[in-house]
Amino acid sequence: MGDFSKRFYTIKKDREFRYLYKKGDCCVSYGFVCYFRPTGRRRNRCGIVTGKKIGNAVKRNRSRRVIREAFRIFDHELSEATGKRFDLVFVAREQTAAMKSDKILGTMRVKLKPLLLKKAGETGAAG
């Protein structure tokens, strides 16, 4: 029960979302937009935003579930790849509800992971 007691830590405060929108780096893909910034916390944190343009509540909830499941796997891979931790905010797009979590995970691996590794290298060299 130890590993599954808390899947990942979430960003909940509006102030933290706005900070990442303003100060964080951005990665745009077909399924989502991701804002991220290195943090000094012990764990990666994730926030998921779904707007009303995506569709009804069923589509918005599905979009959140798909991104959450992909991030659960990606979080483990990212933790092994780099010692740095990040705050990430995923903004779902209209296509997200129709996508599978495997495709979202593949997009995270291809587009987001190189940016995070580069960012971790920059902050590691400066610190």
Order of helices and strands: EHEEEHEH
The amount of helix comes to 40-55%
Mean of all residue-level pLDDT scores: 87
Q: What portion of the residues fall into strands of 2 or more residues?
A: 15-25%
The domain count comes to: 1
What low-confidence regions span 5 or more consecutive residues with pLDDT below 50?
Answer: none
Q: Compute the gyration radius: what is it?
A: 14 Å
CATH class: Alpha Beta
CATH fold field value: Ribosomal Protein S5, domain 2
Number of strands: 5
- Measured between the Cα atoms of the first and last residue, the distance is 36 Å
Number of helices: 3
Strand line-up of the largest beta sheet: 1-4-5-3-2
Q: Which overall shape is indicated by the principal axes computed on the Cα atoms?
A: globular
Give the gist of this structure.
With 127 residues, this protein is α/β, with parallel strands linked by helices. 48% of the residues lie in helices and 21% in strands.
How does this model look, in words?
- There is one protein chain.
- The mean pLDDT is 87.
- It contains 3 helices and 5 strands, in the order E-H-E-E-E-H-E-H.
- It has helices spanning 14-23, 57-81, 101-126; strands spanning 9-10, 25-28, 32-39, 45-49, 85-92.
- It is 48% helix and 21% strand.
- The protein has one domain: 2-Layer Sandwich (Ribosomal Protein S5, domain 2), CATH 3.30.230.
- It is an alpha/beta fold.
- The chain has a 5-stranded mixed sheet with strand order 1-4-5-3-2, with helices on both faces.
